[in-house]
Amino acid sequence: MTAPALTPSTVLGVTARGPLSDAVLRRFGGDVDADHRTHAEVALETTTDIIRDDDIQLALFLLYASSYGSLPGLDADLEWDPELIATRRLLEQHFERALREVVPQPELPEPTVDAVGRALFALADADTGPSLSRYVAKKATAENMVEFFMQRSIYTLREADPHSWAIPRLHGRAKAALVEIQSDEYGGGRPDRVHQTIYARAMRGVGLDDTYGAYVDDAAAITFASHNTMSLFGLNRRLLGAIVGHLAAYEMTSSIPCRLYADGLRRLGFPEEVTDYFDEHVEADAVHEQIAGRDLAGALAEDHPEMLGDIMFGAAACLTVDGWMAGHMLDSFSHGESSLHDRDAR
After folding, report:
1. CA 57 from chain center: how many Å?
2. In the prediction, which pLDDT does 284 show?
3. Residues 250, 281: contact at Cβ < 8 Å?
4. Whose CB among 127, 272, 289, 312 lies 3.0–4.6 Å from 251's, allowing a Cys bridge?
């Protein structure tokens, strides 16, 4: 199967990275004849690694962005466009299959609060790969940290949003636990303490644009894959267990790295407005990890044992994919290279 070549388009301030993302952008830009379904089929047939494929991951990110409303100019009427949804479902099916093939599936514990909590903490403790946070604390340059903020802006300027899709789908103990966590993420009623807002302030502090999407053209494919993993789990009701497990692992592996990131930023002389985001998470996530592991994930598994496999899969996927993203930056920084997408490579 072949598809006609197109000159990469720039729509909504985003430049395509191949025929598929080009067609998706054109459709969002009003081109009703943009054949994104054909390009999706071709891209899936020809890719050697869907998780690191720039064209596929950008296209999926854009399709999810329509539901979040996160990019300026996205037409709300296209959120449920049948053809775009069909393309999204096709990409999702292949992306989920790839994740399930490459993410190590941990042994399943008993579906009880205590057993699931212990298993999740053990899984997080076993994550002993190369540490970007330790590198930042001791060796990263100011230029490295600017790239770090750019890459992380894809998720962190929308922090907590992918996991919040689970709130209306949960009940009882698990719902109460998730709302408790998310209330802190959204500032506990204080707009200035919303974590997205604190991160935006940190971006301004390092001289960056805090507009969501300002650095989409600079993000690596694995950065999109990290965010797309959350969106896949959060937006699909059948994957409720996976998004819960993802959040549990995310909270369990945040506190210590955030302390090291803050240490590195202070070492480089960045002001409090830049370190505040990470300082905030040192204490908050030390509390959240207990709630997420036991009261959220453990309670959900105890109430719905059929979700146990996906809870553990979601946790493992978080550790694996986010580990690849951190590893990409660490490898680039330690070799004196940029971690950003090479715009000239298109």
Report:
1. 12
2. 74
3. no
4. 289
Average pLDDT for residues 302-314, to the nearest whole number? 98
- DSSP-derived 3-state class of residue 300: helix
**Tokens (6 digits) for 286:** 């030390």
Residue indicated by tokens 């935006």: 200
pTM of the prediction? 0.94
What are the helix (H) ranges across the chain? 19-28, 36-46, 54-68, 82-102, 113-125, 132-138, 142-156, 161-164, 172-185, 195-205, 221-235, 240-252, 255-267, 272-290, 299-303, 308-334
Which tokens go with 65?
């962005």
Model pLDDT for residues 102-121, shown as the tens digit of each residue? 999 999 999 999 999 999 99
Residue showing tokens 């999204």: 88
What are the tens digits of pLDDT across the range 60-74?
999 999 999 999 888
* Environment class of 204 (CB within 10 Å of its CB; exposed 0-12, middle 13-18, buried 19+): middle
Burial of 8 (0-12, 13-18, 19+ CB in 10 A): middle
Which two three-digit tokens encode residue 266?
Answer: 């202070």
- Cβ atoms of 214 and 146 within 8 Å: the answer is no
pLDDT at residue 132 above 50? yes
Q: Exposed, middle or buried: residue 62 (CB in 10 Å: 0-12, 13-18, 19+)?
A: buried
Q: Give the length of the chain.
A: 346
Q: What's the rounded Cα separation, in Å, for the pair 322 and 315?
A: 11
Residues 103, 313 contacting (CB under 8 angstroms): yes
Contacts of 85 (CB under 8 A, 6+ apart): none
